[in-house]
Amino acid sequence: MAGILAGIVNEVKDGIVAAISGTNEITSEATKLVRDTVVNTLRASEDIAGTTIQVATDVAQGAILGVSQTGASLVSAARDVGKEVVAGVSEVGGDAGVAAEHAVKSTVKATSEVGGDVVGVAVNTVEGTIEAAGEIGGDVSRVTEKAVVAAVEAAEEVSTETAEAVKNALVGAIKGAKDILKAPLK
Prior knowledge:
- This protein has ten helices and no strands.
- The protein is mainly alpha-helical.
- It has one domain.
- The mean pLDDT is 93.
């Protein structure tokens, strides 16, 4: 299994850089790369459920790192990254909620590492995962809960102030976030 997963972050990062270079826009080629990498990696796996977390994490991280190298907007890219990771995992029968959770955590962490707009990326990634769940006929409520909680948890690793800003932005942008965030985070 390690062979299948080895190098995904760099493969996605390099593919995103190649797809975006010169345009500074998230192209359909770049979003297709995210989804195809998820689908193809999980199909090559003998354990989709066991591999989903690592694939969602690595692909999302690679995409954000690639976008950061091109000068394109991380905030704009985040929605597509979240959407395509969830759609790709779902396409092969994986758990959309788990995919959303780990795609959101990974985009927030990677954005923090490159000095990007963590709040904007958190909100847009959550929106992308929810959009994907709706389009695939998934459990939108579960995906929303997992994504919102993941965004706040990842932001807490950045700083208390960042976590508060993410919470406030999510409450303002995501239907149901206020109720989700009233409960203690897991």
